[in-house]
Design a protein that fits this description.
single chain; 271 residues; alpha/beta; TIM Barrel; eight-stranded parallel β-barrel; two-stranded antiparallel sheet; 12 helices; globular; binds erythose-4-phosphate
């Protein structure tokens, strides 16, 4: 499973590439807003800042999201993003919401799929985002998306919310779901964010589709393991979770003892 960093913070991105574990970067408008707000005192313009992210990513894929709702405008924005940033990196991936419809504007449901098809036909790499059902994943993959981003943590939040369960953002949600009063809590046959990943992986493999399943909206390290076990091709992981996945108390305890026990003569052999 490839590991992407889910961040628009240049220092975090550089750090994770320095660790040698990053295969790509995903951003979204909210992550960019956070980065922009945090660098207010800085006089770097946003174009140069994104350029710095692209350089730091060393030719691996970086997803940048469009903001329009009509397919035609999403395609124009996607082409513009590619043109504006191709001098920094050729590996730009255009992030398109699988459906840009909102309650206020419900006539644009298929505009995302149309844009995914058009951009993919033009040989631009597309990351279909905000995927919450296996059917959305199937349509995005059929339209030619290179990546299909499944929102694991947000699906767990939604199942909790529908059932009046309160939990902190990082709290673990079991991959196999939660039973309450003899029934499984679910959303249209999906019992957890990781279950959604499994169902999408199965459909994509069963039908020989080329899209890679990208587990996004990851909230804790156990979900990274479960995304890998579910067969996700990629997990995009926030910096806080990436820092956490290497740790274990017994590893630290073991290394302390090994350092203490090392014979002086052996240390000299290593110099
Ligand atoms: C990445 O592609 C997604 O936009 C991101 O993982 C969403 O994460 P969140 O649900 O924590 O905002």
């Amino acid at each position: 499973m490839k590991i992407f960093i889910d961040s628009a913070d240049i220092e975090e991105i550089k750090q994770v590439y320095d660790w040698g574990i990053a295969d790509g970067v995903t951003t979204n408008p909210s992550l960019l807003k956070k980065a922009v707000d945090e660098k207010k005192s800085d006089d770097t313009d946003l174009k140069s800042y994104i350029g710095e992210i692209l350089r730091a990513s060393k030719g691996t894929p970086v997803s940048l999201e469009v903001t329009s709702k009509k397919a035609k405008n999403m395609v124009l924005e996607g082409v513009m993003l590619y043109r504006n940033f191709k001098s920094y990196s050729k590996n730009i991936c255009i992030k398109i919401p699988v459906s840009p419809a909102t309650k206020e504007d419900s006539k644009v449901h298929f505009e995302g799929i149309k844009a995914i098809k058009e951009l993919s036909d033009r040989k631009l790499n597309v990351n279909a985002t905000l995927v919450f059902t296996p059917e959305q994943a199937l349509l995005a993959a059929k339209a030619g998306a290179k990546y299909v981003s499944i929102f694991v943590g947000r699906m767990d939040d939604y199942i909790r919310q529908k059932n009046g369960l309160k939990a902190s953002r990082e709290e673990y949600f079991p991959a196999e779901g939660i039973a309450k009063e003899d029934r499984m809590l679910e959303d249209d046959g999906v019992v957890s964010g990781i279950d959604l990943v499994s169902q999408c992986v199965e459909i994509i493999k069963k039908h020989g589709l080329k899209a890679e399943v990208l587990a996004a909206s990851i909230r804790n390290k156990r979900q990274v393991r479960e995304a890998a076990l579910a067969g996700a091709h990629i997990a995009t992981i926030p910096f806080s979770v990436l820092k956490d996945i290497i740790k274990h108390e017994k590893t630290s305890e073991g290394i302390k003892k090994f350092y203490e026990d090392t014979p002086e003569e052996y240390k000299k052999l290593l110099q």
